[in-house]
Amino acid sequence: MKKLEKILFLLISVFLIFSCGKKTEPFPIKESIPKGLSFEINLNPQGAELLISLPTKTEGGYSLNKIKALIIEKIELPLDIPKAKKKKKTIKLSPKLHSAGNLFIYNDYELKHRHQYTYRIKVIKDFLVETPFTEPITIFWHNPPSFPQKFQIKLLGEDALLITWERPKEDIYGLYLEGEVFYQLEKVSKEGIKLVKIKNKEEYFDKIKSGEKVCYNIRAILNFRGTFIPGPKTPDKCVE
């Protein structure tokens, strides 16, 4: 009888030891995948600015405190070389997630004149879990247009003015500029900053308050195969 009791005691002890040491089941991989990764591209005279919205939750709704890597895939294709081969570059970054926000900005200033660029991104959470690549975004890059020429302001009485300029003939590197160009006029006054898009003309009529200081600058924007490439702003011209 005592022998049987010892055997039962040993069996119960072993069961309790293994039960207490049993680990919690990990989250399924599908629920651990980061959710909500997205990006957009803004262009400036220096190149492309990728505005990346990093995920803060997983597909299972759990908080995401860190990621191992952000992968940016960039594919380059020259537009003027028949049957040219695409060139792929993979950029690996390690952004930190923090409570101040999930926006991460990556600037790509290594763009070549008359080339096509396609970007897509993904996030690696750890060695087992990563997101699929996002949908790609394609841009067409051209040297930005130079300043609009002969930028002038003519007062028309005390409360009106006429702004005139001429289309730039060259890009910022002095090459002849072809293609559709429109303009962005910036007005700075006590009321704030106002941006005006102007197309198919090289003049703009504006009303102002008598005695108030108002400043203007303008930039040309080139439409290259549907990609809008901004040139630099002119220095401000002010009236009061």
UniProtKB/TrEMBL annotation:
Source species taxonomy: Bacteria, Pseudomonadati, Thermodesulfobacteriota, Thermodesulfobacteria, Thermodesulfobacteriales
InterPro entries: FN3_sf
Annotated source species: Thermodesulfobacterium geofontis
UniProt protein name: Fibronectin type-III domain-containing protein
